[in-house]
């Protein structure tokens, strides 16, 4: 028995009406994603705190999924931007807007601000 049928069966004693189940799409449903940045790659950590390189993250919205490799290439081509980069956060919406936040370990300086302005 699959998960949603098991859930419906467990609710049967409490609710007798028909329950409709709407499944999420299998890919491109995540509108926000957060990645650490390590070894010139986006990474996530598993339950043992080991990092996993995230070359592709197909559960991310198509907008995030498409911009990730392009942004990573630009970050890695610029030592000023990549140095001390700690985390990259992505937020997108259904209107086609995206917000990317670069988080650094150390305070940012004017050179970094200028480089990021050129990047955007």
Automatic annotation (TrEMBL):
One GO CC annotation: cytosol
GO molecular function: rRNA binding; tRNA (uracil(54)-C5)-methyltransferase activity, S-adenosyl methionine-dependent; tRNA binding
Coiled coil, from the record: none
One GO process term, biological-process aspect: methylation
Keyword tRNA processing found: yes
Keywords: Methyltransferase, S-adenosyl-L-methionine, Transferase, tRNA processing
Source superkingdom: Bacteria
Name of the protein: tRNA (Uracil-5-)-methyltransferase
């Amino acid at each position: 028995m699959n998960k949603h049928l098991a859930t419906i069966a467990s609710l049967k004693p409490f609710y007798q009406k028909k329950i409709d189940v709407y499944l999420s799409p299998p890919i491109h449903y995540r509108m926000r994603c957060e990645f650490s940045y390590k070894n010139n790659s986006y990474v996530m950590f598993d339950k043992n705190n080991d990092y996993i390189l995230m070359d592709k993250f197909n559960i991310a919205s198509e907008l995030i999924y498409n911009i990730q490799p392009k942004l990573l290439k630009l970050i890695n081509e610029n030592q000023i931007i990549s140095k001390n980069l700690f985390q990259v956060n992505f937020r997108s919406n259904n209107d086609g807007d995206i917000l990317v936040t670069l988080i650094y370990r150390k305070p940012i300086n004017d050179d970094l601000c200028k480089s990021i302005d050129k990047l955007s």
